[in-house]
UniProtKB/TrEMBL annotation, chain A:
This is AP-1 complex subunit gamma. Belongs to the adaptor complexes large subunit family. Keywords: Cytoplasmic vesicle, Golgi apparatus, Membrane, Protein transport, Transport. It holds the Pfam family Adaptin_N. GO terms for biological process: intracellular protein transport; vesicle-mediated transport. GO terms for cellular component: cytoplasmic vesicle membrane; Golgi apparatus; membrane coat. It comes from Cyprinus carpio carpio.
Automatic annotation (TrEMBL), chain B:
Residues 144-154 have a biased composition (Basic and acidic residues). This is AP complex subunit sigma. The lineage of its organism: Eukaryota, Metazoa, Chordata, Craniata, Vertebrata. PROSITE patterns: CLAT_ADAPTOR_S (PS00989). Adaptor protein complex 1 (AP-1) is a heterotetramer composed of two large adaptins (gamma-type subunit AP1G1 and beta-type subunit AP1B1), a medium adaptin (mu-type subunit AP1M1 or AP1M2) and a small adaptin (sigma-type subunit AP1S1 or AP1S2 or AP1S3). GO terms for cellular component: AP-1 adaptor complex; clathrin-coated pit. Gene3D superfamilies: 3.30.450.60. The keyword Membrane applies. CDD domains: AP1_sigma. Residues 1-140 form the AP complex mu/sigma subunit domain. InterPro entries: AP1_sigma, AP_complex_ssu, AP_mu_sigma_su, Clathrin_sm-chain_CS, Longin-like_dom_sf. It holds the Pfam family Clat_adaptor_s.
């Protein structure tokens, strides 16, 4: 069999291949030859074949069949074989292969070889890819070599020990004795690797850390010698003596000085010296300064030193070298929390970096700029950041927009400025704004009451320009729905009011509904906005038409809404004004609480409800007291009463819930039972979901007449709330058979202490004469102990000009209502 | 600690790969592909640092070769540039005006030199002279071994041209 071709020959041949297929063919041929050579156990050329295999492996071809051959090479006596064998082992055999453990014995023998270069090979292989088992087996040998006087081996043993500790941290103790005089070495290689070893030990174990703190003076001395010593050709790099060692020592000093006053004090001088004396014309000097700055910032340095460090970073920012600018921005980001004022001084330079061409630098500058924004510089910074938002790459826009919103929220100098900033972001980067910012913005706008007219006007104008950016469109349509009346009335104090008619506004909103650019979520927003305008505008017919058209929309969400709104026009028209009232001021519990305003199904209306309090709870404390006086008993619990909606704030409560309910639960056509859908005041109904009650068929409980006097009849009808059987829902129907209306009708009720009662708003406060209509009101009674239901009611109304007041006790509740 | 060191050409062909962490073959291939794509896409006058997963990638172009390494968060990037430069200097000293072809045809030598400079992702020797001496001594050891075994000992052949393989 002819000798296998030489490695260089093979490389040359393969490089002549013109196509991938040709190369593959050559490789396959050679692999076959190599395989047969391996089978023949050819010792002479094994080395050559494995070398060729390694080359082919680098080209990307499989070479696993050479793994065992590498082991055989390692076991050979020839140095050439060992060299290639260990190289092959490092490339082909890592701890995931089963055969790698077979290396252990060979390595053990080679660690004790007579030739230091063989020992070196073994140490190198163990230190690069030794598995935990191998490390455990061979740690003793490594430890022995750590104590040798041969510096070539000592430095390798030190790094091998580092690897062993990384793989098997428990073995750290074992190397402790050998570290005793590592730092007294003269050889730089040993010094460097020793410092690495000490660093690794200190990072992993607080005990080691405190043990090695005593080395600080020695380290300081070594560093000092390096700086003060004359030119040493062997270790010189651009005029600096052994920068690699200097940097490692600085890093170890950082770890030792952190949190420790004495150590930090001991190294103060040398740090100042390095910081001021290092030559900064080349990269290597700046590398040392960089490490020094990191160390100064981490230890307990005195303030003068810290200022020096920040100034160095400031100088870095002005450096022409991009790498240095990048590194400066990264470091400033780390220190901006602790040394905020010092970093502020360099704010203008940092802001200039926003205009840099390098993407990495721009990103760092952006992050740092956001960290530097505060109440004083907000206006200037925002100008720069908005300019940046305009011109930056799309990958940045989402982060930048979110950052701007956050900063604006925290430090906005005025509401108008805040709204303007939001508008600017929405119009320039509207499509990159995160989805969760839309509800945040809506809430912000709602809470700036005096800016409503201005806001809606600006948003309207923006919509006229461009309807492609969904977040902008969503916020705009929500605002138009809410504040459309301000828009057409032309009352804007902040800027010139625009003249716009109701039809124009409806045109725009309808345009959104039909546009291809609008997402389903946006369409939902605009349909709801159109609906809301039915109470603010006078062109009801047009709105009714739009709403009914979408009752047969293919989009289920739109269809559902349209059907419900239709129902509002028909059956529940009396509720419509109250339902579509202005939104109340919302209380925000967290600054950017995404959890609070998470969209459930693209519906902001329902989620906004969750974040607000029900204001009506705190309301009628005085009335409750009256009741107590009136009913005279201690066993009566004062009830929370809600009045007829005269103030938006209180009415907002459950009526909005109603609106939310309708959308959330997708209430289908309401049942004939004229009970009102439930709302969710937090205090009573932990168990109750938003399931509207008209879905509960509880016809089993018969209605009863609770009061019948002077022509006023009050009937109670019952329902059980499905999720919580302890709650009985009673709807009262008050009818008036006299010839005069009963106006200012107020119904109050009280229950024994073991019950809890909640009274919702009545449908109206006029009971029409001749039984022409009725006033309905819902009472919810929580009866956890299933006691017999009793109630005292108080009625007040005006009849024929004179006020009437009456008390009664209701005891004839059907048993099913409380059992 | 350095996680890996790669050398690849302008066309994305791998010339050297040194891994300091155990990773499966498939993942190594993926990383090589990611690195070549990312680094080759960089514009000429941008900085030499990138972010990739939680590592800092430092790369430098020397003639037709890209030297690319991955560092952990607490490592000094500027110093990594110096390390890469030191490696290039060593190669240059060894091969004499090193070019990509030298590394292609003598890749095993490039590995041997690297193994004298780095171990386990850390620098093991800061003196150029010391490393060059060690490599020369190892090569000499190899050569004397060959001479002893071969029938016709040749004396004046340069290391680059004579290997038993």
């Amino acid at each position: 069999m002819p000798a296998p071709i030489r490695l260089r020959e093979l490389i040359r041949t393969i490089r002549t291949a013109r196509t991938q297929a040709e190369e593959r063919e050559m490789i396959q041929k050679e692999c076959a030859a190599i395989r047969s050579s391996f089978r023949e156990e050819d010792n002479t050329y094994r080395c050559r074949n494995v070398a060729k295999l390694l080359y082919m492996h680098m080209l990307g071809y499989p070479a696993h069949f050479g793994q065992l051959e590498c082991l055989k090479l390692i076991a050979s006596q020839k140095f050439t074989d060992k060299r290639i064998g260990y190289l092959g082992a490092m490339l082909l055999l890592d701890e995931r292969q089963d055969v790698h453990l077979l290396m252990t014995n060979c390595i053990k023998n080679d660690l004790n070889h007579s030739t230091q270069y063989v020992q070196g090979l073994a140490l190198c292989t163990l230190g690069c890819m030794g598995s935990s088992e191998m490390c455990r087996d061979l740690a003793g040998e490594v430890e022995k070599l750590l104590k040798t006087s041969n510096s070539y081996l000592r430095k390798k043993a030190a790094l091998c020990a580092v690897h062993v500790i990384r793989k098997v941290p428990e073995l750290m103790e074992m190397f402790l004795p050998a570290t005793k005089n590592l730092l007294s070495e003269k050889n730089h290689g040993v010094l460097h690797t020793s410092v690495v070893l000490l660093t690794e030990m200190c990072e992993r174990s607080p005990d080691m850390l405190s043990h090695f703190r005593k080395l600080v003076p020695q380290l300081v001395r070594i560093l000092k010698n390096l700086i003060m010593s004359g030119y040493s050709p062997e270790h010189d790099v651009s005029g600096i003596s052994d920068p690699f060692l200097q940097v490692r020592i600085l890093r170890l000093l950082r770890i030792l000085g952190k949190g420790d006053d004495d150590s930090s004090e001991a190294m103060n001088d040398i740090l100042a010296q390095v910081a001021t004396n290092t030559e900064t014309s080349k990269n290597v000097g700046n590398a040392i300064l960089y490490e020094t700055v990191l160390t100064i910032m981490d230890i307990k340095s005195e303030s003068g030193l810290r200022v020096l460090a920040i100034n160095i970073l400031g100088r870095f920012l002005l450096n022409n070298d991009k790498n240095i600018r990048y590194v400066a921005l990264t470091s400033l980001l780390k220190t901006v929390q602790t040394d905020h004022n010092a970093v502020q001084r360099h704010r203008s330079t940092i802001v200039d970096c926003l205009k840099d061409l390098d993407v990495s630098i721009k990103r760092r500058a952006m992050e740092l700029s956001f960290a530097l924004v505060n109440g004083n510089n907000i206006r200037g910074m925002m100008k720069e950041l908005l300019y940046f938002l305009d011109s930056c790459d799309p990958d940045f826009k989402a982060d930048c927009a979110s950052g701007i919103f956050l900063a604006a929220e925290k430090y906005a100098p005025s509401k108008r400025w805040h709204i303007d900033t939001i508008m600017r972001v929405l119009t320039t980067a509207g499509s990159y704004v995160r989805d969760d910012s839309v509800p945040n913005l809506i809430q912000l706008i709602t809470n700036s009451v005096e800016m409503h007219a201005y806001t809606v006007q600006r948003l309207y104008k923006a919509l006229l320009d461009d309807i492609s950016q969904q977040p902008l469109v969503q916020v705009a349509s929500w605002c138009i729905g809410e504040y459309g009346d301000l828009l057409v009335s032309g009352q804007c104090e902040e800027e010139e009011p625009i003249q716009v008619s109701e039809d124009e506004v409806l045109d725009v909103l309808e345009g959104l509904l039909v546009s291809n650019l609008s997402t389903p979520v946006t369409r939902g927003y605009s349909l709801t906005a159109i609906m809301k305008l039915s109470t603010r505008f006078s062109s009801l017919n047009r709105i009714k038409k739009v709403v009914s058209i979408y009752g047969s929309s293919i989009d289920v969400e739109l269809q559902q809404r349209a059907v419900e709104y239709n129902a509002l026009f028909k059956k529940y028209d009396h509720m419509r004004p109250a339902l579509l009232e202005r939104m109340p001021i919302m209380e925000k519990t967290a600054t950017n609480g995404p959890s609070e305003t998470v969209q459930t199904n693209g519906e902001t209306d329902s989620t906004i409800l969750d974040t607000k309090h029900l204001p009506s709870i705190s309301q009628p404390a005085s009335q409750a007291n009256d009741l107590l006086d009136l009913l005279g008993g201690n066993d009566v619990v004062p009830i929370i009463q809600t009045t007829v909606p005269t103030k938006p704030a209180s009415a907002g409560g459950e009526l909005l819930d109603l609106l939310g309910d309708l959308s959330l639960t997708g209430g289908p056509t309401p049942t004939p039972a004229s009970s009102v859908p439930m709302s969710q005041p937090p205090f009573l109904l932990d168990g109750l979901t938003s399931q509207p009650l008209f879905n509960d068929i509880a016809a089993v409980i018969p209605p009863m007449t609770a009061y019948n006097k002077n022509g006023l009849i009050i009937e109670f009808t019952f329902e059980r709330s499905n999720p919580n059987p302890n709650i009985a829902v009673i709807t009262i129907h008050a009818t008036n058979s006299t010839e005069a209306d009963m106006t200012e009708f107020v119904f109050q009720a009280a229950v024994p202490k073991t019950f809890q009662l909640q009274l919702l708003s009545p449908s109206s406060n006029v009971v029409p004469a001749f039984n022409q209509g009725s006033v309905t009101q819902v009472i919810r009674v929580l009866n956890p102990q299933k006691q017999q239901l009793r109630m005292r009611i108080k009625l007040t109304y005006t009849h024929k000009g004179s006020p009437v007041q009456d008390l009664a006790e209701v005891n004839n509740f059907p048993p099913q209502s409380w059992q | 600690m350095m996680h890996f060191l790669l050398l690849f050409s302008r066309q994305g062909k791998l010339r050297l790969q040194k891994w300091f962490l155990p990773l499966p073959e498939r993942e190594r291939k993926k990383i090589v592909k990611d690195m070549t794509t990312m680094v080759l896409a960089r514009k000429p006058r941008t900085c030499n640092f990138l972010h990739w997963k939680d590592l800092k990638i430092v790369y430098k172009r020397y003639a037709s070769l890209y030297f690319c390494c991955a560092l952990e968060n607490q490592d000094n990037e500027l110093m990594a540039l110096e390390t890469l430069h030191r490696y290039v200097e060593l190669l240059d000293k060894y091969f004499g005006n090193v070019c990509e072809l030298d590394i292609i045809f003598n890749f095993e030598k490039a590995y041997f030199i690297l193994d004298e400079l780095l171990m386990g992702g850390e620098i093991q020797e800061t003196s150029k002279l010391s490393i060059v001496k060690s490599i020369e001594a190892s090569d000499m050891l190899q050569e004397t071994e060959q001479k002893r075994r071969s029938e016709h000992p040749s004396s004046s052949e340069i290391i680059q041209n004579t290997t038993c393989f």
